[in-house]
């Protein structure tokens, strides 16, 4: 209420008709609360909620994960946003209820973000997407597909290959390189809709990716298929994938998701 933005809004509203005032308030408030999400490969020393709660990001250490978090917030500010969200410290992982809600909501949060900033910690300025393990991780698949607007940053927080602009998903060269690395067609990269369409393709995109916890290989796909299933940490990957496949076939009627050719999967026991 004491902010400069609030004072400016009150001043502007005093010169508007009631209809104009409602639209102005909605537009201003929506713009002010747009948020930026962070996508990255977790490393050692990532700050948790208890590490940042009650502290100013500007006063924190720049060591390890704290330095990465601070750089992310700096880039969000550079892009003109007031709010930034990072999965390492914006979820209370000590609360199983909050963790389950977060996992179930993750796709929607990235989809609603005004911008997703991707930090490729293992890509030098002259490097390429192909050298980054970000493209081998399970959770980063939905973090690539869900947001409408994405910017990729390299090791030293420079824009990837100096592709300036407000959205790398609007850059033809970047999209073509993403297609080569991920095997995902450009139409899915730029206009992805969660659901059951092309279910087999969606499973193939994830087939070469890995997660730290085995069950997460299934949980990381819930948002991509627009499924809401219980998160049961401690169950095996086979059971988690089995539940996922049962739901996909039940809702889509598409049994082609069971039709695989190639090396035997370590998860083969989930198939009928």
UniProtKB/TrEMBL annotation:
Residues 35-126 form the Heterokaryon incompatibility domain. It comes from the Eukaryota. Pfam families: HET. InterPro entries: HET. Signal peptide: none annotated. PANTHER family: HET DOMAIN-CONTAINING PROTEIN. This is Heterokaryon incompatibility domain-containing protein.
